[in-house]
Design goal:
Largest interface: A-B, 73 and 63 residues
Number of strands of chain B: 4
Distance between the termini of chain A: 79 Å
Strand content of chain B: under 5%
Largest sheet of chain A: 7 strands, parallel
Radius of gyration of chain B: 25 Å
CATH class of the largest domain in chain B: Mainly Alpha
Helix content of chain A: 40-55%
Mean pLDDT of chain B: 77
Distance between the termini of chain B: 8 Å
Strand order of the largest sheet of chain B: 1-3
Oligomer: heterodimer
Low-confidence stretches of chain B: none
Number of helices of chain B: 18
Radius of gyration of chain A: 29 Å
Number of domains of chain B: 2
Structural class of chain B: mainly alpha
Helix content of chain B: 55-70%
Mean pLDDT of chain A: 78
Largest sheet of chain B: 2 strands, antiparallel
CATH superfamily of the largest domain in chain B: SecY subunit domain
Low-confidence stretches of chain A: 1-37, 796-832
Number of helices of chain A: 32
Order of helices and strands of chain B: HHHHHHHHHHHEEEHHHHEHHH
Shape of chain B: globular
Chain lengths: 832, 452
């Protein structure tokens, strides 16, 4: 009987969308998985079902995990042996293990020994004994797989096992956490295990000085966010002096919340910028001028595509008030650009949705997480335009010295593995881009959450009314409710409506993110109603009964946390993350999404009419499975489109990344003194001889090395902006029947050659005039130190989409010859 | 240069693609040695030889059809129709798209619409193939070789004709599939490569003719078989190819300026963004259309000649012009039609309003021209001008074979290599292929073949 139940439990697990349990069955499902044998059999049956379900996923999900199961069993079998050892005995074992790895035993042969040992150490040091499912995850991570584990199943502990084993090799392991807080928490929390094993552990977070960073990177295991690692990488690449380096190579990284980092945020460019005199012009005046323009008369918003253009009337007005002559001329190009940006800032970017203003600063709101995206800016003058719109002091943007996307930064690692709660839906992409195979780890206790079908309404108003009723009703029973909204504005609107109806609630959004910990801690308390943006998604652990679980039994009795989504998101993964807040570690819980036919998702993708027709026929959409199917279909289509876009973007970055590697290789050889510079000797032998006679050959070579390093950075920075400009206009060549991608590669290939030549010319030119001292070149005196200060930030995808993204849409549009929504009165058609 | 060729084969992926393409083209050529069932190949060849005697206009016309359809009627083989029905179907659907609203709507539907149109193109191809092959076979079995056609005497009735028609249809569809395989796993555009291979396969024949006419006889100076003629031919050949490359690649680069992003200091000079307009936007299409259209007067005149009107002066003169000799009148018509179709095709495929809107959407503009209508007008004006030059070149290339044939008194098989559709196709497909290979090299940071 229990085996049958196990199958039932796992079946639903395999098809998360169908996980709708009739209430009464829940009690039977408290199946006991303490018996490892039954658990492994459960896993085996689970896999068989999965094989069948996912055969079409072309190897993106690992199915033949028998060897992992065997390893888990073997590790479990040695439990007694290690439990019997004293602390000293365990320490001896770990020293022996490290020794064996030192002499070259493959860590694959030591997995069982090592993991059994670390399991026991974990119990003694931090009081947690990894479950078999955690060990399964650990084994898979060790095999460089991407592990899917449900929320609250203990990813942090599972990552320790493979991290420690890899760290024995002495080359440094990075555990990339989702945010700075988790980095320091996990490093401290798991520290005792590493220390017991004789491994050092450190963490990096924003605000640390280079010495602290260097110390953290020198540790055997370093906890940090991918972004911090990327920023340090960029800073190291601009380093002119060997001792200033903070990182020491990229060996192995375990990425937490891997789907978010590797997919959603993978295209975010990390930027290092240096101070530069910036000409802002009179942005405030332009912002004021643009504010006086009338929608539809002076500018037209392109429907369905966040874009806005001046109309002829608007242009005439601007030209008159600016007294600048034709705006569409070369000499006015900069002015016109600023006007365009001012218009975008005025019309397209909404305060409290796209950004907040806090303490005189514009703060971006991340669309995916709903949080204030720290350290993030809009690119190319848009940030300054927003600051002007809000009447704030304009912050310097600086000159972009170097930039890399997270995706390409992560490719620097020799190997990566990952963990997340939602990998299945992104499996194909992860496999394509990172060669990562997903391994699905079943929960330790089966998930009892009931996922209700979506409630569907005709209008947004009806939806909101129903939401308020439903929340009030649940609140009266005393059940904790978590409501996920999509924007700051929506969360506040809903909170106000609830307050009107007399239901008290707490709001968690980007505006009050300082209270996050406090709000989340009590979100599971009886009677708590929490209205949140996507903030309460990923990584939020809501304990039933409040932070100390004092009323846990009562809440469980009531049915656990009820999660309500006010909208379906474009990505199923984000929906699933929200659902995942309920039903952690076998707790009961329920979830339901409220959808209206006026929602963006349904409206924009043209199923509104279909669903409305359906409603007319059946009169009731409330629990119609067709709706769910249609929405799932739309989500798949959108995911497919974004995958296609990301695939193309990746294609476009291929050449540049190769070139980056060539440049870095050359730079690192010079920096580490592995290669003697010989350009001067070759190109200008007389000068070289003269200088060598005067200062000695070593000094001249040192000078050349310093100058070359400096010029590499400078030329590369210029080159990046050049490439960005080429890329921006490359779609035009398809009009001439050329292949934009081929043409782009051809152009940047030629430009790269020019870069190499320019580099040589610049180095020789600098050396010709530079004053050489016995310490090489006085870089500061020669003005070769580069910017006096640098800072790092992330570039936000513009709300209008990435340059290339727009390019792709444009290409598609060209291919399909879709006539633009042309609200311009100069429309050709109207004159015909 | 040769070192660069060597690098092509250093890249395993590229090497594999090239070998596969060559293999598929080999398969395509093999098909020309597989005969159609029921047809007496000996009789067939004999009657074809009769058609191909110099001066016979039908023969020359057929030759032309073979040339640009990668087909070969001479030996009725499974690939007898070549890839032409597929091309015809694509052209028909493209042209229909600009006049028939439902199809136009489909064309605008993006990926899904394109797939649907592709599907329709294939259905139409099958239909065209069947009709074309059936007519052809009917012609073969009824009219040719006078008595009883060229079927083996033991076969009669509709059955063998239908079987052969099915075979030819399948052959063309198979060619289409081959082309797609090249697109997918090989390098270059499959269909284009197949056409090019068909044209190039005629080189041995032409060389043989050249050998027979000149080298096999006593080589000397002067006369019909003089060495100086060979020299002129060689120089002309190079000159024509250079000219064709010139127009195929020719583009007018209209500088554009982006007004979406603020840029920092610029140290890299040069035009970064431009809108290229092709001098020869229409490609080989005008020549194909013009020469196909000119087949009709040729055939009609031939019919007229055999009637009582055949003795009339005007008919006599016209037939002489349109017939084997390709006289003054024919060539003037030819040039006129090429001009017409150049503008026609450009008008269909070039949409200045779309371009102007696209520029506007990306925040780009052509300095000195307001976005929208004025930009569109400017683009149209430029296009009209460069098309005039492009069409002139195209016309020149088209008549060169006739001129050579006439002035130097050279066989058409040889002369056709000096211009016209064949050369244009070979050059543009060849350039395209080189560019594709180039981009593979460039991706790996090798220098491209086209760079010095």
């Amino acid at each position: 009987m229990s085996a049958l139940n196990a199958v039932g439990g796992t079946l639903r697990q395999a098809q998360p969308d169908l996980r709708i349990h009739p209430r009464k069955k829940i009690k039977n499902q408290t199946l006991n998985t303490k018996n490892p044998k039954s658990e492994i059999r459960t896993i085996a049956i689970f896999r068989k079902i999965l094989t069948f379900l996912t055969r079409l996923r072309s190897g993106a999900i690992e199915l033949s995990t028998g060897r992992y199961d065997r390893q888990v069993a073997a590790i479990a079998a040695r439990e007694q042996e290690f439990a019997a050892l004293t602390d000293d005995g365990l320490k001896q074992r770990s020293t022996a293990l490290r020794e064996r790895i030192r002499v070259g035993t493959s860590s694959n042969d030591l997995v069982i020994d090592a993991f059994a040992l670390i399991k026991e150490i974990a119990r003694r040091t931090v009081g947690m004994f990894p479950y078999d499912v955690q060990v399964l995850a650990a084994v898979a991570i060790h095999d460089r797989k991407l592990v899917e584990m449900q929320t609250g199943e203990g990813k942090t502990l599972a990552a320790v096992l493979p991290a420690a084993l890899a760290a024995f090799q002495g080359r440094g392991v990075h555990v990339l956490t989702y945010n700075d807080y988790l980095a320091s928490r996990d490093a401290r929390w798991m520290g005792p295990i590493y220390h017991f094993l004789g491994l050092s552990v450190g963490h990096v977070a924003q605000g640390l000085v280079p010495d602290e960073r260097r110390a953290a990177y020198a540790c055997d295991v370093t906890y940090l966010t991918a972004k911090e690692a990327g920023f340090d990488f960029l800073r190291d690449q601009a380093c002119l002096d060997l001792p200033q380096l903070v990182q020491r190579g990229f060996h192995f990284a375990i990425v937490d919340e891997a789907d978010s980092i590797l997919i959603d945020e993978a295209r975010v460019p990390l930027v290092i910028a240096g101070a530069e005199d910036e000409q802002h012009g009179d942005l405030h005046r332009l912002a004021g001028l643009v504010r006086t323009l009338q929608s539809n008369a002076d500018y037209a918003i392109v429907k369905g595509w966040r874009n806005v253009n001046f109309t002829t009337a608007g242009l005439n007005r601007l030209q008159k008030s600016l007294q600048c002559g034709e705006l569409h001329s070369e000499q006015n190009a900069d002015l016109f650009t600023r006007l365009n940006l001012a218009l975008q800032a005025e019309v397209l970017l909404r305060r409290d949705v796209d950004y907040l203003v806090r303490d005189g600063q514009v703060e971006l709101v991340d669309e995916l997480t709903g949080r204030v995206a720290e350290n993030r800016r809009w690119p190319y003058g848009l940030q300054a335009a927003i600051e002007a719109k809000e009447g704030l002091v304009i912050q310097p943007q600086g000159r972009i010295l170097n930039s890399i996307t997270l995706q390409h930064f992560l490719e620097q690692y020799a190997s990566i593995a990952g963990m997340t709660g939602t990998a299945q839906d992104a499996a194909v992409e992860l496999h394509d881009f990172y060669k990562l195979t997903v391994v699905i780890v079943p929960p330790n206790r089966p998930c009892l959450r009931i996922d209700h079908p979506d409630s569907v309404f005709r209008t947004k108003a009806a939806k909101f009314a129903a939401l308020v009723l439903e929340i009030a009703h649940l609140h009266q029973t005393g059940r904790p409710v978590l409501v996920g909204t999509t924007s700051v504005a929506e969360s506040e609107h809903l909170a106000a409506r609830l307050a009107e109806s007399g239901t008290s609630c707490r709001v968690l959004n980007a505006r009050n993110d300082a209270d996050e910990a406090a709000v989340v801690a009590e979100a599971g308390a009886p009677g708590a109603v929490t209205i949140s943006t996507n903030m309460a998604g990923r990584g939020t652990d809501i304990r039933l009964g409040g932070s100390d679980e004092r009323d846990r039994d009562r809440v469980v009795e009531l049915g656990g946390l009820f999660v309500i989504g006010t909208n379906r998101h474009e990505s199923r993964r984000i929906d699933n993350q929200l659902r995942g807040r309920a039903g952690r570690q076998g707790d009961p819980g329920e979830s339901r999404f409220f959808v209206s036919l006026e929602d963006d998702l349904i409206h924009r993708h043209g199923i509104a009419d279909f669903l409305a027709g359906l409603a007319d026929r059946s009169g009731n959409l409330q629990d119609d499975p067709t709706v769910g199917r249609e929405i799932a279909h739309v989500q798949r289509v959108i995911e497919g489109e974004s995958l296609e876009i990301r695939r193309t973007l990746r294609k476009y970055s291929y050449c540049l990344e190769r070139q980056r590697r060539l440049i870095y290789e050359r730079r690192n050889k010079l920096l580490h003194d592995l290669e003697t510079p010989e350009l001067l000797r070759r190109v200008e032998p007389e000068l070289f001889e003269r200088l060598a006679d005067e200062f000695g050959e070593d000094v001249v070579l040192l000078a050349e090395r310093q100058v070359t390093l400096f010029q590499i950075d400078r030329c590369w920075s210029d080159y990046l902006s050049h490439v960005a400009e080429i890329r921006e206009g490359i779609h035009l060549v398809s009009f001439g029947g050329l292949d934009a991608f081929d043409e782009f590669n051809r152009q940047i290939n030629a430009a790269f050659r020019e870069l190499l030549q320019r580099l040589d010319t610049q180095v020789v030119a600098t050396l010709r005039t530079a004053r050489i001292t016995p310490d090489g070149v006085d870089l500061a005196a020669e003005g070769l130190l580069g910017p006096s200060s640098t800072w790092t930030y992330l570039i936000n995808d513009t709300p209008m989409g990435d340059i290339l993204q727009r390019l792709l849409r444009g290409l598609k549009r060209f291919v399909t010859a879709d006539p633009a929504d042309d609200d311009d009165e100069e429309d050709v058609k109207s004159e015909e | 240069m040769f070192a660069k060729f060597a690098t092509i084969f250093k890249i395993p992926e590229l090497r594999k693609k090239i070998y596969l393409t060559l293999f598929l083209l080999f398969v395509y050529r093999m098909g020309f040695y597989i005969a159609l069932p029921h047809i007496d190949q000996v009789k067939m060849a004999a009657s074809f030889k009769q058609l191909q005697t110099p001066g016979d206009s039908l023969g020359q016309t057929l030759e032309l059809v073979e040339l640009f359809s990668a087909s070969n009627f001479g030996n009725s083989t499974i690939f007898g129709l070549g890839i032409m029905p597929y091309i015809s179907a694509s052209i028909i659907l493209q042209l229909l798209g600009s006049v028939y609203p439902p199809l136009e709507k489909l064309q605008k539907e993006g990926e899904a619409g394109r797939k649907k149109i592709n599907e329709y193109t294939r259905y139409l191809t099958v239909a065209l193939c069947f009709v074309q092959s059936y007519m052809w076979l009917l012609f073969l079995s009824r009219q040719m070789a006078g008595q009883g056609g060229i079927l083996y005497s033991s076969y009669s009735g509709n059955y063998p004709t239908i079987v052969a028609a099915f075979t030819m249809t399948t052959g063309t569809i198979f060619l289409m599939w081959l082309g797609e395989q090249i697109d997918e796993y090989g390098i270059g555009n499959g269909i284009s490569l197949i056409i090019m291979a068909g044209i190039l396969s005629r080189i041995p024949k032409a060389l043989n003719k050249l050998y027979e006419t000149y080298l096999a006889k006593n080589v000397g100076l002067g006369g019909d078989t003089g060495v100086e003629k060979l020299l002129i031919l060689a120089v002309l050949f190079v000159a024509v190819i250079v000219g064709v490359i010139f127009i195929t690649q020719g583009q007018r680069r209209i500088p554009t300026q982006s007004a979406k992003h603020v840029r920092g200091r610029r140290v890299w000079g040069g035009q970064k963004q431009f809108l290229p307009l092709r001098v020869n936007q229409a490609g080989v299409m005008p020549i194909i259309f013009a020469s196909s259209l000119l087949m009709f007067p040729t055939l009609i005149l031939q019919q007229l000649r055999s009637t009582s009107m055949g003795q009339w002066f005007i008919i006599e003169q016209l037939d002489a012009s349109f017939g084997g000799e390709r006289g003054y009148v024919y060539n003037m018509c030819y040039i006129g039609l090429i001009y017409f179709f150049c503008y026609f095709w450009t008008a269909i495929t070039f949409n200045p309003k779309d371009m102007a809107n696209n520029l506007k959407d990306y925040g780009s503009f052509i300095p000195g021209h307001r976005p929208g209508k004025r930009t569109a007008e400017y683009l149209e004006r430029v296009m009209v001008r460069i098309t005039y030059v492009g069409a002139a070149f195209l016309a020149l290339v088209a008549v060169i074979p006739t001129v050579i044939q006439g002035f130097l008194n050279i066989d058409f098989v040889i002369a056709s290599f000096f211009g016209g559709t064949g050369l244009l196709i070979v050059v543009s497909v060849g350039l395209d292929l080189v560019q594709k290979i180039d981009s593979h090299l460039v991706m790996r940071n090798y220098g491209g073949l086209l760079e010095s």
